[in-house]
Design goal:
alpha/beta
Length: 163
């Protein structure tokens, strides 16, 4: 069954056409252009996240996807999520974002990431995320940017586990 997929790009990024094609094999893709420096970006994304079946994000989009997946208890696939950055900070005022959820999360961490430092991110994930169903995938030769082959492989594994 085709899914509604919400894809959240990284800071000043976008969903590449090749990754869009990969995701379209699994469902209808919504990939909004996000200005993370705009204070209201998170509220706008809540509308899209509420109707998504799966939320996928990369870098700062991974951090945002995690928060939205907690808010709506949705499965999430996060690539090098920016858990250990200081800015931008989403406006979460008035939102009751739980610390845990029961739906699955997969977190792909590149050991060669020099933007979101792998060891710092792994430490944060291990010490701060209290998810019932989480899979941490550590990729030895992965940097911050996700090559299409790695993206396709991780999306396939994630989607296969969801069916």
């Amino acid at each position: 069954m085709k899914k509604n997929i919400l894809y959240l790009h990284g800071y000043k990024g976008s969903l590449t056409p090749s990754k869009q094609i990969i995701l379209e094999d699994y469902g209808h893709v919504v990939a909004p252009a996000i200005v993370y420096d705009h204070p209201g970006y998170f509220r706008k994304l809540t509308v899209l996240a509420s109707s998504a079946d799966i939320i996928i994000g990369s870098s700062f989009g991974g951090h945002t996807a995690h928060l939205l997946s907690l808010l709506y208890n949705k499965p999430a696939l996060l690539f090098n999520p920016a858990f250990v950055t200081k800015s931008p900070v989403p406006d979460l005022s008035g939102l009751a974002i739980p610390k845990t959820k029961t739906s699955h999360s997969s977190i792909v961490l590149g050991k060669l990431d020099d933007v979101i430092i792998y060891k710092d991110n792994l430490k944060f994930v291990t010490n701060n995320l209290h998810l019932e169903d989480v899979r941490i995938i550590e990729v030895d030769d992965l940097e911050h940017r996700i090559p299409d082959d790695v993206f396709a492989e991780q999306v396939a594994v994630f989607m296969e586990a969801r069916t």
